[in-house]
Specification:
Helix content: 40-55%
CATH topology: Rossmann fold
CATH architecture: 3-Layer(aba) Sandwich
CATH class: Alpha Beta
Number of domains: 1
Strand order of the largest sheet: 3-2-1-4-5-7-6
Distance between the termini: 42 Å
Oligomer: single chain
Number of strands: 7
Length: 209
Amino acid sequence: MNKIISLNRDVKYRVEGLKMIVRGGELMLDAGSGPGILTLIAFKIGISESVLLDPLIEMHIEARRRIKNCRNMHNVIGVFEYPPFRRDIFNIIGCSFSLRDARNIVKATKMLTEKLKPNGYILIIEMGKPENHILSFILYIYWRYIVPIIAIIIARRKWRKYIALSETYLKLPKNNQLKKLLKTLYKVIIFKEKIMGGGLIVIGKFKKQ
């Protein structure tokens, strides 16, 4: 379903972002990991270990089903705003279509920053909200009306969770606002707007003050 509503780009964006920052042997935090798709791709590209952070037990179960017999994958129940890890531990923090679900994006981003090692990277793959009012309205129509129809046809019993995406979209900061926030925490290396600004690939490099 996610593949369809992202116009077949969800995996492509994850691969594109990870290939820019994975050198081999990294410890990654998959923040808002869901069913573990980002971790699965990251292992194939070359990370050595991944910690999956998600508040839902069923998501961790699904991730374990998807990534079998992996000793270097660890599941932790928790949320963005209060990540239960010590400082300076991760080489990479990945947020793959998950940061939008944080109750407070500003707080979540700052709290995650504390867990990055010096010169560590944060990767954000997310739905975007362009500054252009016409494009923003077109994308709202897509999330509000078209996605629910697709969900009813494809997802059937699970269609209701996709209805909320239009409300999530309205709450998102505009792309330039998100970029401004991230620049206070990182050196923003990559800020790619995809599909008329409706998709984002963001890479930030963290430097200790």
